[in-house]
Each structure stands twice: as structure tokens, then as C-alpha cells.
């Protein structure tokens, strides 16, 4: 699976304001910013992303996915702190 294919799958199932993805075709790291994460704990956010991937995780199409999941406000704060 390519990075663009994986991004398309995530975007199709989750409203993303920002999505970065790095990886080697099997092992991925994603930064995902979504308003759907508002009021959710980290584990709930990750479960939401895994739900968009469905069977692709179970069939090993996506072997490993590490994530940083942020709300738009958290993303904005992280960007401001990084620019300082």
C-alpha cells in the first residue's frame, strides 16, 4: 500500500483537517488532526482511526500504524509552540 492510498482511506472515513504520513509500505507513522477527536481520550482517537482502516489491519495490509492524534486546537497550539 502506498502513502497516498492509506491517506485516501483515512480521509474517506474520518474528517481530517491535517494528515501527514510517513512509512515504508508496512510500518507507518501518522499525524492526524480531526475535529472528531474533540472530547475523546487518546485510546478512543486511535480506535476511531483503526475503525476507518477496518480489515486492512487484520489482514496485515497495514502492518503497523503509530499515530499522533490531535484536535484542531491542539494542533494549533503545537504549531505555535514549535514556531517559538
TrEMBL record:
Family: Belongs to the BolA/IbaG family.
InterPro entries from the UniProt entry: BolA, BolA-like_sf, BolA/IbaG_stress_morph_reg
SUPFAM superfamilies: BolA-like (SSF82657)
Protein name: Acid stress-induced BolA-like protein IbaG/YrbA
Superkingdom in the source lineage: Bacteria
A UniProt-annotated Pfam family: BolA
